[in-house]
Write a structure and sequence with these properties.
This protein has 297 residues and is mainly α. It is built from 10 helices and 4 strands, in the order H-H-H-E-E-H-H-H-H-H-E-E-H-H. 72% of the residues lie in helices and 4% in strands. A hairpin with a 5-residue loop joins strand 1 and strand 2. Helix 2 runs parallel beside helix 9, helix 3 runs antiparallel to helix 4 and helix 5 packs antiparallel against helix 6. This is Energy-coupling factor transporter transmembrane protein EcfT.
């Protein structure tokens, strides 16, 4: 697990607004340049927040899925006017369907990588802080969902080790099927029991009752206000430009993009928006080095 970064220590509202903006732009815009910026920014943020090993494992899982999505679109979609080749049955393989499949693969990879960074930064306590008062049930559901996957994986490893210690390593295929079914049954039972215990615990503490006070360690300082302003301006500019058609791109029947200086400015601002955590980390690192140099450490 990577160490805490400067963006991770910002106010939760800053984290939430940033990830909402990059995810909305990633899902809504199919412009190749926009997808490339989103994928590159998601990869850079993933390395910053999750570390190389975690991102490497995630890319190993994403690679085959992305190739399957791209290849499936190429084989199933006939649209497009530039025919590259024809299958034995006469079905055409077009350049436009190939590019659209690659764009869909980039979109899938970018969204998954953004959510990986979301999970590392927007922890359960931040979700509870943001939504605990206005929507306590939603906050509890989101916090449980975010913590469910890592806890489930740890529980799976513990159950697997315990079962190997009791029964040994399965050898036959039928034994492996029974082994997997036993693991699945154990995980489902543990998940349901854990959810019930959590709900009962939160209810006994008065969670969600009107007038309940909440302790918080988060304070909105000057840096957070500046980041909120930057995210609102840059995100609003990109979303407004995208809604106005400045980032429109059509793949069928032929690839065509909206040109002009407006599109270039939108892409530049979107690049700066995606790289905001890295810029903040570089600025904090520079400030730290300057401080330690002045104090003589």
């Amino acid at each position: 697990m990577a160490r805490r970064r400067a963006f991770d220590m910002c106010h939760p509202s800053v984290n939430l607004l940033y990830f909402l903006l990059v995810l909305v732009c990633s899902v809504g815009c199919m412009h190749p340049a926009c997808l490339g910026i989103s994928l590159g920014g998601a990869l850079a943020c993933g390395l910053l927040f999750r570390g190389r090993r975690a991102v490497g494992r995630l890319l190993g899982l994403l690679g085959p899925v992305a190739l399957l999505a791209a290849g499936g679109n190429l084989l199933l979609v006939r649209q497009g006017e530039t025919v590259l080749a024809r299958l034995p049955g006469g079905r055409p393989l077009t350049l436009e369907s190939t590019l659209y499949g690659l764009a869909a693969a980039c979109l899938l990879g970018a969204v998954v990588l953004w959510f990986a960074s979301w999970q590392a930064v927007l922890t359960a306590d931040k979700i509870t802080y943001l939504f605990g008062r206005i929507a306590p049930a939603l906050a509890l559901l989101l916090s449980l969902t975010l913590s469910f996957v890592p806890r489930l994986r740890r529980r799976l490893e513990e159950t697997d080790r315990a079962q190997r210690g009791l029964l040994g390593q399965p050898r036959r295929r039928l034994d492996k099927v029974g082994w997997g079914a036993a693991l699945l049954s154990s995980l489902l039972g543990w998940s349901l029991e854990n959810a019930i215990e959590t709900a009962d615990t939160m209810r006994s503490r008065g969670y969600g009752l009107p007038g309940r006070t909440c302790f918080s360690i988060y304070r909105l300082d000057r840096r957070d206000k500046g980041l909120l302003g930057w995210l609102a301006l840059s995100g609003g500019y990109v979303v407004a430009g995208w809604a106005a058609g400045g980032l429109s791109y059509t793949y069928y029947p032929a690839c065509q993009a909206a040109g002009g200086p407006g599109s270039l400015s939108l892409l530049t601002v979107y690049l700066a928006l995606c790289l905001t955590p890295l810029a903040l980390e570089a600025w904090e690192e520079r400030q730290w080095k300057r401080t330690t140099k002045n104090t003589g450490r």
